[in-house]
Amino acid sequence: MITAEWKPIDELVGYVRGFEKVLLVGCATCVAECAAGGEREVETLAPLLTMALAKEGSQVEIVSGTMERQCEPEFIEEFAAQAEGAQAIMSLACGIGMQMVAERFADIPLYPGVNTASLSVREEPGLWTTRCEACGDCVLGETFGLCPVSRCAKSLLNGPCGGTRTSGNCEINEDTPCIWNRIVERAHARGQLDSLVEVKKPKDWSNSPAGGPQRMLREDLRP
Amino acid sequence: MADQNQNSQPSITLVYCRQSLAEGEEPFEGKRTGQGFTARLVLLPCSSKMQAAYLLRILEQGQEAVQVVACPEKACQHLVGSTRAEKRLAYAQDLLEQVGVGGQRLGLERGLGFTIDKIMELAGQRAAAVAELGPNPMKGVSSQ
Predict the structure, then answer these.
(1) Do A48 and B100 touch (CB under 8 A)?
(2) Domain extent for A140
(3) What is the ipTM of this complex?
C-alpha cells in the first residue's frame, strides 16, 4: 500500500488559518489502511483544527468526508456539492489523490494534510515497512523475492556491504534487518548460494522516478 | 437563575464501561448535576468503543472535558479493550497538547465495582483538573 503520515499539526493549522470554510477529505484505501487519511483520521483532524483555530479566536467551518478512492474521478465527483463554497481543500490522500482533487476543483486551493511516504506493508499492528520503491526495473527474481533497492539502506545490488551487525541487522539502523543477510539466508536454504557470486550489472534506472515523469501507455486499452 | 448557574458550570462527558460498574448497580445514561459541574453519562459495552475522533468531537461540541471509566487491564472482557482505550486517549491527549487546548481535558480511570456516585466523583475530579486550563475555546462557538 501507499503509506503516508500527517504533517506536523502546526503546519496543518497554518494551512487552514484565515479561511472560513474548508473541505477536509480523506481516502478510504491505502491511507486508511496506514491510519493517516481514512475516515477515522479525517474525523479526528476536523475537530482538532476547529479547536486549534478557536483557541486563536478564529472560527472555521470544516466540512469533512472520505472518498472511496481519491485517485478516481468518479469518486471525486461525488464531492462536488461539498466543495461548493469551500475556500480551501485539505486532502489526507496520497500525492496522487491530492493531485486528482486539485485538478477537479482547480479554482480552490488544495493543501496536503499528509506527507506521502512509501510503498509499504503493515508488518504488525502499528508498524509499516517499505517493500518497494517503484524503481521500474524489478530484480526480485534474482534476489529471492527480497528487494535490495527499497530494503537496503544503500540499495546495493551486490551485497551485503560488510557492515551487517552480528544480529543480522543493518549498520545504518539497528532496528532494520540487513536485507542482504536475509537474501543470503534464503539462497542458502534453497541451496543456491552460487547464484549470488555472479556480479550483477547496473540496473536500468531510466524507468525509476529519477528518470523523470513516467508515462505508461497501453494501446489495447485505449478508446 | 438555576439554569444560568448550570450553564456556567463546567460540563463533563462521562463515558463508562458497563464492566466497571458494581454488581447490581443500575447503569445510568443522561445528565446529572454534581458539585459545581454537570455531567452527561454515556454507557459503553467496552471502553475500546471510544475512538480518538469521538473524544475530540465531544470537546468540539463545547464540553469542558471527557472522563473515561474503564475496567482494569486484566479484567477486560475483550482482553485488550481497556488497553486500547488508554492508548487512544493518550494519542488524543497528545494532539490536544499540540494545539494548546490541553491534554488534561481527557482522563481515564480504571476500576471495578464503581457506583454511579463514584464515577460522578471522577467526573468532578476531571472538572477540577481542567479548571486551571480555562474554558474550552469551543464554548459558545458550538451549538451543543
Answers:
(1) no
(2) 134-201
(3) 0.91
